[in-house]
Amino acid sequence: MFQEMSVEIIPAHSLSLAEQAEVFSQAFAGYVGGSFEMDAAALANFILHQGADLCYSRFVRTAEGLAGFAYINRTADISRVAGMGVVPSARRSGVARRLLTHLLEEAQARGDQALMLEVIEQNPAARALYIQKGFRETEHLLGWRRAAGTPSIESHEAIREISLIRASQMPSALEYPELPWPVSRHAIAKSAARHAFQSGPALVVMGDPNATAVRLHALSCPDRMDWAAVRKTLSALMQRHPDREFFTPPVFPKQFGEEVFQPLRFVREPLSQFLMRHDLRDC
User: Fold this and answer.
1) In 3D, which of 209, 203, 138 has the Cα closest to residue 170?
2) DSSP of 233-250
3) C-alpha to C-alpha distance for 104 and 187, rounded to whole angstroms
4) Cis preceding-peptide flag for 177 (omega within 30 of 0)
5) Whole-angstrom Cα distance, residue 283 to residue 279?
6) 46-65: per-residue pLDDT in tens?
7) H-helix segments, the chain
8) How far apart are CA 90 and CA 140, in angstroms?
9) Using one digit for the tens of pLDDT, what is the confidence trace for 63-73?
């Protein structure tokens, strides 16, 4: 049995970025998804790319000091937990449960339709907490990697580059919140994406092609998912950079792996996630 701590929940904007970064680093030290050593600049970059809003994000303070946090991204009337953690000394004390309850109450008070989040499958304690609090799993999210020099499936697809702002304005057959926010068109303008390419109905958004490992940020079609067109467009893009490794963290739904990544000889990464949703309008 744990003894629940007395906590105060405060807005993130009341703390300096340096204070927030210190708590973030403590909370994610030794994390199954990887440790994060944050300073103020790195945290500012995280907040930017996650589309987090400091006016909705919250920290927890106990008698011992700052104990946890949750960064909230709000897109229209959908809120998303973009990152949440508790420092080791405050775990199993009810801090995470109290914070999550507070986030749900605030989202409902704002009139939000739902609260979304992604949770690493290999973190069963967090997953169990979210299920206990009424979240349901809507998608299994997988990561993929294709080694440099992997033989390509030849594609003669003609691709053209379009601006990132144009890419972010294009409707998609799969939209947020059915699609995870990090691979939705809402994230394109906020992410570290560098280039967007289109061929027919298919859109592929990628990171820096000069990086050793090039991240794929989005794959979409406007009316329906034409998987063959997406495969051909991505294959043609990779043929331009045969000496580069391509990857995506576990943010694409399982079907993208079956229809695109596996046929193009990507290998599944060990970590995976679940996209989770808590509907609020009927609460």
Assistant:
1) 203
2) HHHHHHHT-TTSEEEEEE
3) 23
4) yes
5) 7
6) 999 999 999 999 999 999 99
7) 17-27, 40-50, 95-109, 124-132, 164-169, 185-188, 227-239, 254-256
8) 29
9) 999 999 999 99
Q: Which two tokens mark 223?
A: 């009316």
Q: Which two tokens stand for residue 179?
A: 């699609």
Are the CB atoms for 137 and 275 separated by under 8 Å? yes
241 residue type, one letter? H
Range name among 31-40, 52-61, 136-145 with the lowest pLDDT average: 31-40
Question: CA 242, CA 244: separation in Å to the nearest integer?
Answer: 6
Angle at 125 (CA atoms; ends 120, 127), nearest 5 degrees = 50
The whole model's pTM is what? 0.94
Domain boundaries, the chain: 8-112, 142-274
Residues ≥6 apart with Cβ < 8 Å to 74: 53, 56, 80, 110, 112
The CA-atom distances, in angstroms, between 142 and each of 123, 128, 267 are 15, 19, 10
Q: CATH second-level architecture of 142-274? A: 3-Layer(aba) Sandwich (3.40)
Q: What is the dihedral of CA 81, 189, 259, 162, to 10 degrees?
A: 180
State the distance between the two ends of the chain, measured CA to CA, in whole angstroms: 29
For residue 1, name the pLDDT band (cuts at 50, 70, 90).
Answer: very low
Tokens of 117: 């989040």
Among 149, 145, 152, residue whose Cα is nearest residue 239: 152
Tokens of 184: 């939705």
Per CATH, is 8-112 categorized as 3.40.630.30? yes
Q: Which residues contact 104 (CB under 8 A, 6 or more apart)?
A: 115, 133, 134, 278, 280
* Coil vs helix vs strand at 260: helix
Structure confidence at residue 136 as a pLDDT band (50, 70, 90): very high
Q: Residue 108 phi/psi, 5° resolution?
A: -65, -40
Taking the C-alpha atoms of residue 220 and residue 186, their distance in angstroms, rounded to an integer, is 13
